[in-house]
Write a structure and sequence with these properties.
Elements: H1 18-49, H2 51-61, H3 64-91, H4 98-123
């Protein structure tokens, strides 16, 4: 089969709509949460094992790297939550048009950015 269609394999030149970016970010945040749960469960196990374990975890959580990891996990959770609410709203029949999808994606990005910034202020 000899197709005359042009093939663009340069991913840097492909322009995706905003709805695609929010969908891709929703999937990425889900993967981050999946693996981040292991870190959080390890910290929970350490804190509940003994008083020394709790003290070690408390000392570890005061480091800037630990705060960055917690902020990253919280950011993924907040974005995933806001994008999930958007999906629930769309399941109810609101915002299913092309214009509604674009507006919903913009709202998701703005609300998520505000919540992530507030989470950063709260953590630090």
């Amino acid at each position: 089969m000899n197709s005359q269609r042009p093939v663009n394999l340069d991913l840097r030149t492909i322009k995706l709509p905003i709805t695609a970016y929010t969908s891709i970010l929703h999937r990425i945040s889900g993967v981050i949460l999946f693996f981040g749960i292991a870190i959080l469960l390890y910290g929970l196990e350490m804190s509940l094992s003994s008083e020394e374990g709790f003290a070690r975890l408390q000392a570890c959580m005061s480091s800037p790297l630990a705060k960055l990891v917690v902020w990253g996990l919280l950011s993924a959770l907040l974005y995933h939550l806001v994008a999930g609410v958007r999906h629930l709203v769309m399941d109810a029949g609101i915002g299913e048009t092309l214009e509604g999808g674009k507006l919903g994606s913009k709202i998701v990005l703005i609300v998520s950015a505000v919540l992530i910034l507030l989470a950063g202020v709260w953590i630090w």
